[in-house]
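The protein record quoted for completeness.
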Amino acid sequence: MRRILQGLRRLVFGQPIATDALTPVTLRTRLALPVFGAGMLSAVAYAPDAVVDALRRGSQQGAIPYMAVGVVSIMLLLGFAYRSNVRARPDNLGDYGTVRDLLGRRYGVVTGAALLVDYLFTVAVSVAAVTQLVAYLIPQLRPWVGLIGVGLIGVMTLVGLRVVRDRARVLLAVWFGFLLVVAVMLVYGVARHAAEASSPIAANPPTTWTIVLAYAGAIASGAVMVTGIEHLASAAPNHAEPRARRAGRTLLIAVSASAAAFLTVSLLAWSYRITGWADGPILLQTAEQVFRQPVTIWVVAVAAAAILYAAATAVFRRFSILASSLARDAYLPRQLSMTNDRLVVRGGILTVAVASAVMVVATGANVETLIHMYVVGAFAAIVLSQVAMVRHCTERLQLATEPGDRRRLARDRVLHGTAAVVAAGVWIIVAVFNFLNGAWLAIVMIIGLVALMHAINRHYAAVRGDVTLERKDRNVALPSATHGVVLVAQLHRPAMRALAYAKAARHSSLEAVGVQIEADAARELQRQWGKIDSGVPLVILDSPYRDLVRPVLDYVASIHRSSPRDVVVVYVPEYIVGRWWERFLHNKATKRLRSQLLGLDSVVVSAVPWHLESARDRRAAEEVPPPGEQLP
């Protein structure tokens, strides 16, 4: 059975990968674009919906072009700012590294927490958007969108744990395929619109508050187009040399392509008088108006679903990398920095899978609800990153002597300062106007995660101070004596093996200890013990409340109290089982006793294994190769 399970595991997750087989992955711009740019481009599948819906509430659909241009302007500004990030610090591994190194660990933790929350919402929004595409094409599946989303996350988790290599070319087809679909839709849309001479939506005469609410809501919602920029900026180490220049080029191309696609879908929706996602995703509504052919609508839906899937799977890896960095800095459990036999940080992948699945189920895979929570984390990290780069430019400017370097640094400082102010403005708009719609939850998650990470860091610092070797510890005094205690429930082979181990250790004193639950059983144990003539005294402990653990604890503690400088070694026989269900039948009291004994000072617990027949059979089956396989 064990071999079958092992084979299934290898079939699903793949063969183990040796550490020395891991080679750094370097990509040229053509392949780096889809691998790291899928997150930003995928937002085209839902960002226009958010903008149009926000304007519709204020009856300002006629302002779609202006809001789209405003969102694109923010994208381009931050694109140039992050290109400067990459060129200045190509090895920073993202906003967390930049902020930690330039502003300090306190702000770095805030950035890390904000990004982790952002990644969770990226997966949830992407998956929810895919389910909306499915529900639009197959309305009968609408009641099951939550279950479909969870299933999709499960598939992504398996793919992430398996580590599908050489996927860059597949992503290349997905990325450029989606761009091609949008480009064709633009050409057909412009041609059909010109031929039919339909009029776009006109804006209604607004009041001042209507303008403020509608436009602010549109900017807050459209800002989701920028959320993938950090992933692009953190990809410099994965580029071929010259890394900084190639990474900067990749970033600008990805931002420009995503901005063009977003602008295309938004303007087509405006031209064809599409007023919101109440009737379905705007991308598919637009495709339906432009092509008017069911097959082409399916093509657009498949292309959109593929880019959304690519974006979500990329986040699994990025979340694991960031969580691993935070764990190495002692802000998350150390387990999140450890890779398995496939060189995968399994803890990070499972964490993002479970958390995003909970979000999808809790919101009913509602994209609109999730978007209101989405932007908070991304823009918090962007603001801190740009402030950090302002400090970086200022420090470098103070040291620079060449006029050309000073002009470049001064220009970059203005760029980063402007980007920081704009990003802070967007964050405030999002936090204020979307607060009651769900932004509060993202803020609470970030604050809670920051508090948790600081608590973890304090714990690790306390443990480090407790276990660090000091000069006074280098000449540790040996215990004056060691006392051996062998636990004997009944006289059988496991007990005799434990007694043999204890005798071999040559303790200063050695005794066997049993607990009297029933008087007849205790007398029988004493009688049998006298027959074997082991030379080791047997002590029977009375247990008036029929507890096996407390009498032993009290007895061992009394030995320590009488000789505080001595060490007590307790030998506990333990069964090793071969079948999973046997674990529920054995060792329960033994494990409870062992865990409590370990809490006593100067007490060492030695588990003496006894392999049951099922365990011996399993070991023999593992050691003997199957027919046809050569012995080593």
Observations:
- The first helix runs from residue 2 to 13.
